[in-house]
Amino acid sequence: MTKTEAEPRRATLAVIGQEASVSMSTVSKVLNGRSGVSAETRAIVEGLLDRYGYTPRGQTTAWDPFLELVMSEIDTPWSLEIIRGAQSVARDHGLSLILTQSGDRYAPEPDWIDGVLRRRPFGVVLVLSSLSDQLQRQLRTRGIPFVLVDPSGEQSSDIPAVGAANFDGGLLATRHLIELGHTRIGVVGGPEHVMSARARIAGFRTAMEAAGLPIHNELMLPGDYHTGSGIEAAEKLLSLPQPPTAIFALNDLEAFGVYTAARRLGVSIPQQLSVVGFDDIQGAEWAGPPLTTVRQPLTKMAEEAARMLIRIRNQESDLSLRVDLATTLVVRDSTRRVD
């Protein structure tokens, strides 16, 4: 066997262009997320980049000195906490922060990827539901490190991610209500495919079962982590022949929706209904009444993700790729003991 037959061809742009029957400039356009390439050709080149395991060589100065934060919503209190954390770390390390808006929070469109490939940032913090294998390959073949914040689905062990102890938070919220004497506890859920929502529900169920309390299906209603679903669910719960004496909303925006529904129906919080949220976003302590909630350290999660990104870029060997930060119960005036 000759040397040429024994050794695979090195993954160069010329080799990939030859395999794809396109010019090196076309391969370069795909590699850098530029336009002017048909979808079919782009898919062929991407497949070859993946098959050859292409990685940039000798590009120590190829990236620009900014950290890119990709998220679907940039104008919510939840998002602002994430932005604040990422900006703090970026500034401390001499990096600028760029915000990129993707699609819907729980089903993001991949349109953002071309811009990221074109800009070639220092690294990317992705506040997304998940990251497909294709998107992972595209980032890795360009040598762009990434970290997920609050991933909604299970990710493989080699995907860097920062989350929160959502199960513990659900447990804390429910135990608090049980300790106040509540036995009929309603729940406004979250998107079924989102890991944080599933974990919070699991914590709720565990607390109820440990206390020997029944879980009533009619008190468990769906939600989508937005205020409107909190309003809709609470109106249904509070209109039942036997309404709940407490509601656990899986995030603060839903809890604010519960407040709105209670006000419309003439139900007093906390005299007639106790409410617990989740996140402790800005505004929770100023709600009327101030909201009892589970504090998810959103700013710290973003800070940790940005620091992890820097450690990945620096190729540190002792790096932990999965970090879950603690959640804590913050008791305010929206809960009280059952009379």
Rg estimate, integer Å: 24 Å
Instruction: Note the overall shape.
Output: elongated
CATH class of the largest domain: Alpha Beta
Q: Number of DSSP strands?
A: 12
Number of separate domains: 3
Query: What's the N-to-C terminus distance?
Result: 87 Å
Brief characterization of the structure:
With 339 residues, the chain is an alpha/beta fold. It is built from 12 helices and 12 strands.
Structure description:
The chain has 339 residues and is α/β, with parallel strands linked by helices. Helix content is 41%, strand content 17%. The strands form two sheets. It has a six-stranded parallel sheet with strand order 2-1-3-4-5-11, sandwiched between helices. A six-stranded mixed sheet has the order 7-6-8-9-10-12, with helices on both faces. Helix 5 links the parallel strand 1 and strand 2 (96-101). Helix 2 packs across helix 4, helix 5 (77-92) runs parallel beside helix 12 and helix 10 crosses helix 11 (252-265). It is elongated and about 75 Å long.
